[in-house]
Amino acid sequence: MRIVFLITAFAVSVTSLAQESSKLSPSEIWRAGLPPITRFTPTDYKAHAQNWDSVQDNNGII
After folding, report:
1. Is 28 left (phi over 0), alpha (psi -120 to 50) or beta?
2. Which of 13, 24, 37, 38 can bridge 28 by disulfide, Cβ–Cβ 3.0-4.6 Å?
3. Each residue's pLDDT tens digit, 8-30
4. How does residue 58 score in pLDDT terms, banded at 50, 70 and 90?
5. HSE-up of residue 16 (Cα within 13 Å, Cβ side)
6. How far apart are CA 28 and CA 59, in angstroms?
7. SS3 of the chain: helix, strand, coil, percent, to 5
8. From the CA atom positions of the chain, what is the Rg in Å?
9. Alpha helices in 1-62 (DSSP H)
10. If you count DSSP H runs as helices and E runs as strands, how many of each does the chain have, helices first?
């Protein structure tokens, strides 16, 4: 039961931090371990609302 509580508390704290990330500075977001996310509208990049892309690095990792 304790482990369930800890996992739930962690998930709630991470979720609330992620929702507040727009109020954080870039260095605070980096220290919190959140991924850098930039939102673009379809008019920004002149495409449809849903687009997919994949990238492979020099080590072959996708």
Report:
1. alpha
2. 24
3. 877 766 665 555 545 777 777 77
4. very high
5. 6
6. 30
7. 50, 0, 50
8. 17
9. 2-19, 26-32, 42-45
10. 3, 0
